[in-house]
Design goal:
Layout lengths: L5 H12 L23 E7 L17 H9 L1 E3 L2 E2 L4 H10 L3 H4 L21 H7 L4 E7 L18 E5 L10 E2 L2 E2 L2 E2 L2 E2 L6 H14 L7 E6 L11 H4 L7 H26 L6 E7 L21 H4 E2 L1 E4 L9 E3 L3 E2 L3 H9 L15 H5 L10 E7 L2 E8 L2 E8 L7 H4 L1 E6 L15 H15 L40
Helix pairs in contact: 6-8
């Protein structure tokens, strides 16, 4: 196939778009196929613990021109929701299903836990492999299982992997639990450097190795700006008016933003930017060093500051442009069905999806999505935090395991907000609306019942006598897989 220029591509997309219905489909097949001259490249960039007030287009002192540019030249996703913690968001993103169903909805996959992405869950790279995407790269923080080679990214549909299996590793030594958690493929990568820069370097090399006429998948889950708060001195020097944790955090965000700029520039240099769908969002609200104001709450809560995240998308050749602000509720579980639509996949050969294809919302062909409840959850130490957004209302339940309570309203704490009028959750209306509370409590009880046969909370919370494997080489890894190979 001969590469086409941008004008030809836009004309072809426009002709195909005329035959696509303006609505969206919920929880099953993706919408109509994209009738373009080629399937678009798909780039998904994930920040780790980026707060609402940590990007300059939300008024932050942190300078993020490249993140701003994705939303400013593409579309700003103003009500994009993730889960409150790292692993659950990654599970929902990769499967298009609520993390509770996957068994990764309760907590994060700590180093001593054996749980991971179940083998019978189909994830994005596996689906795109069947759709003809030959190169499928994952560069950054995996966090979806590390107890056996079966859970490795290369065992789950990716053709390239570079980065860490766990979170919270040292940015300069790449050590977690006393062992090197830095890998190229299966092999330990004994390379010096700041992880954010190294991830970016590898992502750029991957783009440069792609053929302009063959679509690719690039997934870049940065471990920044998650703790530990570490940054190169030149980035700390950019924020002389800040101190302590906030200065370090700001420096880390700037380093990540520069990396995102390099990735976007690599698309330009290969002349495939018009043909590339780019999605950026944070895996949850901000934690240590971040700012979520004016939103209430933070990481590890189901208040808006924990689950409503900074997000933007662009696809110049496909109409995801113009700097529009989209305030429709959408989020992590919608990525899989939207990617399916982009790749022309109608059947992902997996379990039923919970998300919906939102491409028509992104392009402006649809003005609103079908009504659906949106859920959030985190479980810890025998307690539940549950949230449901439905229409103008948002209910939050915090208390004992809701399915084991006789009366959630008396045994737990319930909040109710008119979230469309009060996005900062300042005025609790639960006492004035008992009928709404009872109705929404039943919805979160049903949602909580969806969890799979296993859950992270079934495994030990503390490390106990755990000792990390040497160089974090996973059990079941073959000797021949430990030869480090460079990207070609």
């Amino acid at each position: 196939m001969r590469p086409i220029n941008r004008r030809q591509f836009l004309q072809t997309v426009a002709a195909g778009a005329a035959g696509v219905a303006a609505g969206t489909l919920v929880g099953g097949e993706a919408g109509g196929a994209i009738k373009a001259a080629r399937k678009p490249n798909i780039v998904i960039i994930l920040a780790d613990d980026l707060g609402w007030n940590d990007v300059s287009y939300h008024g932050s002192v942190i300078r993020t021109p490249n993140i701003d540019g994705i939303a400013g030249k593409g579309v700003e996703l103003d009500r994009f929701y993730a889960e409150p913690l790292c692993s659950p968001t990654r599970a929902g993103l990769m499967t298009g299903r609520h993390p509770l169903r996957v068994g990764i909805g309760c907590s994060v996959i700590m180093p001593w836990r054996k749980h991971g992405m179940p083998a019978d869950e189909r994830i994005i790279p596996e689906v795109l492999a069947d759709a003809g995407y030959k190169r499928r790269g994952c560069f950054g923080k995996w966090h979806l299982g590390h107890s056996h080679v079966r859970q490795h990214p290369l065992s789950r549909g990716f053709t390239h992997f570079y980065g860490c299996y766990n979170g919270n590793l040292d940015y300069f030594t790449h050590i977690r639990e006393g062992e090197l958690d830095w890998h190229r493929g299966h092999a330990p990568a004994r390379e010096k450097g700041y992880t954010t820069h190294l991830i970016t370097d590898e992502a750029v090399k991957f783009i440069q190795g792609c053929k302009p006429d063959e679509p690719f998948l690039l997934y870049v889950p940065y471990n920044a700006p998650h703790a530990p708060l570490q940054a190169p001195q030149e980035y700390l020097d950019k924020y002389p008016d800040l101190t302590g944790k906030r200065q370090a955090f700001a420096a880390m965000v700037s380093a990540m933003d520069d990396g995102i700029g390099r990735i976007l520039a690599a698309l330009d240099s290969l002349d495939v930017a018009d043909d590339t769908f780019v999605l950026f969002f944070s895996d949850n609200g901000g934690g240590i060093g971040s700012e979520n104001k004016p939103l209430r709450g933070s990481k590890a809560t189901v208040f808006e500051g924990g689950i409503r995240v900074t997000a933007g998308a662009r696809w110049p050749g496909g109409g995801v442009t113009g700097g529009r602000k989209i305030s429709t509720v959408m989020g992590l579980i919608d990525v899989m069905p939207t990617v399916m639509r982009l790749a022309g996949v109608k059947d992902h050969k997996g379990k039923p999806l919970d998300g919906m294809d939102v491409l028509d919302l992104l392009t402006g062909q649809a003005k609103q999505a079908p009504d659906r409840p949106w859920f959030g959850y985190i479980g810890y130490r025998g307690k539940d935090q549950l949230a449901v957004i439905e229409g103008p209302w948002k209910l939050i339940y915090i208390g004992p395991r809701i399915l084991k309570t006789k009366d959630p309203l008396s045994e737990g704490k319930v909040h109710l907000f008119k979230i469309n009028e009060d996005p900062n959750e300042t005025t609790d209306l639960a006492g004035d609306n008992p009928d709404v509370v009872r109705r929404l409590i039943e919805k979160v009880k049903t949602y909580r019942s969806w969890h799979g046969p296993t859950c992270l909370n079934d495994e030990p919370r503390s490390r106990g006598s755990f000792k990390a494997p040497k160089d974090w080489i996973l059990p079941g890894t073959k000797p021949e897989d430990l030869k480090e190979t460079k990207i070609k």
